[in-house]
Structure formats: C-alpha cells, structure tokens
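Researcher: Batch entry, complex prediction.
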Amino acid sequence: MTIVAVVGDGSCSAATACLAEETGRLLAEHGATVVCGGLGGVMEAACRGAKSAGGLTIGILPGRRRQDANRYVDIPIVTGMGEARNVIVVSSSESVIAISGGYGTLSEIAHALKQGIPVVGLGSWQLSKDGREDTRAIDHSSDPAEAVQKALALAIE
Amino acid sequence: MTIVAVVGDGSCSAATACLAEETGRLLAEHGATVVCGGLGGVMEAACRGAKSAGGLTIGILPGRRRQDANRYVDIPIVTGMGEARNVIVVSSSESVIAISGGYGTLSEIAHALKQGIPVVGLGSWQLSKDGREDTRAIDHSSDPAEAVQKALALAIE
Amino acid sequence: MTIVAVVGDGSCSAATACLAEETGRLLAEHGATVVCGGLGGVMEAACRGAKSAGGLTIGILPGRRRQDANRYVDIPIVTGMGEARNVIVVSSSESVIAISGGYGTLSEIAHALKQGIPVVGLGSWQLSKDGREDTRAIDHSSDPAEAVQKALALAIE
Amino acid sequence: MTIVAVVGDGSCSAATACLAEETGRLLAEHGATVVCGGLGGVMEAACRGAKSAGGLTIGILPGRRRQDANRYVDIPIVTGMGEARNVIVVSSSESVIAISGGYGTLSEIAHALKQGIPVVGLGSWQLSKDGREDTRAIDHSSDPAEAVQKALALAIE
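Model: Structure tokens for the complex:
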C-alpha cells in the first residue's frame, strides 16, 4: 500500500478544492492511501475525492479532539502537538503532493525535502536561494493527473 | 469505528504475548480498530491477533522508518518523535488496554488518565499516592475477554 | 551546571507549594538550575524559591504563548505540543523531584524512569505491579532537604 | 529579555560561520539571548559569537543526549523529537535570523511565518508562489549588523 500525503491550506478557493478532490480521487483509483492534516480546505477535498473512489484516508490532527477531523477521514490520529504534526504528515508518506498552500504547507514541503521524501507541486511554492531557483526541490505539475502520476512514480520505499 | 489502544512492552514473555494476541483478536471480532506503538512484543501480538480476525491495525512509530513497524501493522504512522509518540497512541484511542508493561507503558497509562481516556489493566501497574491506592484510575481485568468488554463499554465518544 | 526538574500539579495546596518553594530555593543554593513545565502551582512555587536564592529557571510550556509562563521563569521554552512537553521537561534534566502531583506528574515520572533519569519523590506516587511495589523506581524523601540532596547525588552526567 | 532564534545549516562554510558568529556577538551585545538548534555549523558559530560578548545561549536539541550540544550552549533542552524540535526553536523566539541554510532551515522559516514571528534573512531562501515573489515573508539583510537591527526592531512581544 502506497501512502501519499496531500498538503495544502485549511481553507481554499473552489478551484483549489476541485484540484484537491480530483487528486484524492485519482490517488484512490490507483490504490494509494491519502494521508493529510485531517482538517478542512485542501485536506477535506482530497479526502472527499479519495472516498468517492473507495480509498482509505488518514488525518493527522493538530488538536486534541478527533471530532475536528473532516467527515471524510477514516483514521483520525490525534496528536495534540499543533504544527509539529506537520512533520508526522510527511514522515508517514512515501511522496507528497502540495496543492497551492501557505506557510504551513511550506513547512511540510521543507520537512519532506529534508527527509528525502519527493514533493510534487500543483500551483504551490517555488524556492530560490541566492537568486537561483532550487529546481531539484519541487517537481511542478500542471494538473492532478500529472501530479498523481509523478507522486506514485517517485514514491520512496 | 471504535479505536482501542493496546499498550505494553516491546518485548515480552510468551504468556503475555498470548494475552495480547487474544486481546487483539477479540477487539477485531467486535469491530474495533487496534492502535498501538507499532513495534514488537505486546504491540506485535495485539496486531497479529487483530489481523487473524480481519481487523484493522495502526502503529504509531517512535522512529523515522516505516520498516520498523511489525508486519501486522496496516497503517504505519511515522513520527520520529521518540517517546513523545506515546501521547499520540493514547490520544488517538477511545479507551486503552494496558497489558503488563514497563515505564513506557506507565507513561501511556498516565497520559490517558490525564486526558480522561479510560484505562483497563491486564496484569499491569497499580498506582498509590500517600499510601492509598488510586482505585479509580485503572480498571483491572482478569482476562482478555473481560478487558475487551470493559474497554468497549468505557470507550469515550 | 546541574539541571534538576521539579514536577507537580499546576494548582496545589499551600502546604505543597511550601515544599516546592523550599525545594527550588535549596536547588538554587546548591548551584542547580530548575527546569519545570513553566505554569502555576508546584512549578511556580519551585521557580519562586529558586529565584529567591538567585538561581536560574527554565519553563517548558505546553501552549503557544510565552506569556503563560509564571513570572519566575527566566527562560520560557514555547513548545505548542501540549502534554508531549512533559517528555522534554524530564529529558532536559539530570534528575527529577516529583512533589505530590496527578497523572501529568505521573507521566513525567514514567518518562524519566524509562530514560534512566533518577526520580526522587516527595509525597508523590507509589508504583506496584502484580501486587509487588516497584521499590527501585522512585526514591522517596521525607522533606525538601533530603529530596534535593538525593537529586543532586543521583544526577546523571 | 529578547530571545532571537538564529537558524542555519549544521555544517557550513567558513564564510557563513563568520556571518553567524558576528550575528551572535551583536545579538549578545544588544542584550538579546540566542536560541538555536544547539548543534554545529551556523548554530555553533552563533553561540560562540554570543558567548564572546557574554550572552546567554539556548540549544533545542533534536536527539536525546545533552552531550550533542555544541560547547557554547548554556542551556541544552533535550527534546528527542527529531525535526519537530524546529517548531520549538522558532516558537521560543521573538524573531528569527536565517543564515543561508537548507531544507531544515526552510522549515524553521515556514513555521515562524505561519506563527507570525518575523524572519530576517541573510543569504537565505527566497519564496515565490504562482511566479510572484512573496516579498512580505522574509526581510532580507545584507550583513549581520542590519540583520540584528531588524530582528530586534521586529521582535514580537
């Protein structure tokens, strides 16, 4: 069973949610399990998509209440550790798809790259240092199908 | 879906493993999911029992490698947080069954009690303060069937 | 510099606070730094005692606001990790003095013992398993002077 | 007491170490305490600089051994939580100076920005999303004096 993290904002536009739902659906159709932060926005849309295709979803929650999980989370993991749960979301995955996203998402991208877990971006962050883009870091995709294909191909053991 | 934590030593006697396996099997037969620390000993035996009855198992790992999970873990959660993962094991459960166990298990019992999550003991710790036993803390059981019955009856929402 | 953890309830009786303050004062007089959970009750009293003797105090806070630290904390460490910060309190110490305390304190005792960090008790928990008291676990003391003497003598490198 | 985090690679060039040492020294001269990840490279150089000016240094360690702290750390905090300690480094600070750095440093920048803690960069990451640079995120400086001045001016309460 391949586990792919889908990371992004807890509240997002309808267009971003549409991308996240399609991403979740395609992951489930390919037999992958979705792990995410368990809340709303991109996380909820990805879980909804995965469930629409009969997939399994895991939500790593920052708070102390399992009731905070969106309704499409099958397995709520309750950490009570706030943002430190971002580390667990990516550490528990074999590859990461980042969809748009703010600084929390950026932290998940960074933790994944630090650990050598491949990151595929869909309208997400670009990173530069000393004026040069870090082109090896995030594998940018133009649509959910390409993102899912890359995430599955790159998934580490 | 009810999630019950089974906590105990990472290495244990054959007798303790037998209790843990029976506990895992009975939980799965009653439709409960087993969450544990994902390693050997009591954790592995409980997962093996749960899988023998077609149950679902979650392992919250202390290290950074999913490969450290015992082979009966369906959902490995990789924390890289060492003992702090003990908090997550119990926080993610609706009740806890402690089987024998050392100081790590004691920490899980304590974290559960602190959060108001019921703890059922099977040959596990007894707690006293100022010379008086804290009889409300751990609900002691004499066999796996009683422990599972209590854990399911006491499970919080 | 020896670092000793003082652990106990976030709210406590005047008598317990008196023991904690005396403990903090004696630790500082012996040149030890006090680390604690940074909040009220035993934690605040221990810090107040340490400051009265010119000592240094560290508070490992569970929440996200440094303002939650009691006013006698010199170094507030902001974890945002809830109870998981209990692991850090004891891991950062060379020995632990547990003064009375509830289940949170019990978790700190357990994490310390798991890691081989000596624990001295002052009216705190007694542990038994299978009907036998675990006499090696907690070194019980009858007053702050004895507790501090033991904590300093037992402090690991 | 103002606490400023200095974040950067655990091994670095002599030029980067020189910037970090100067940064630590200037922070101490302005009465600020340095908090960092406690290891080598930028962390060690910043602590060495701070100590050369009589400052106080805090090292939030990822592992379980206080002996892993560089020799210029006054207060070693032992987390045993791996990369999740990055969250604590920035949460415990009132502003952050990022000096060069890799993905671990990027995670610290992201966690700080997520929490509204100001980040000053010295030859560090630039962030863009959808092809537009996020110019509000990191306040880039050209030398340690400017970085320290900004970090102190921007420090949150």
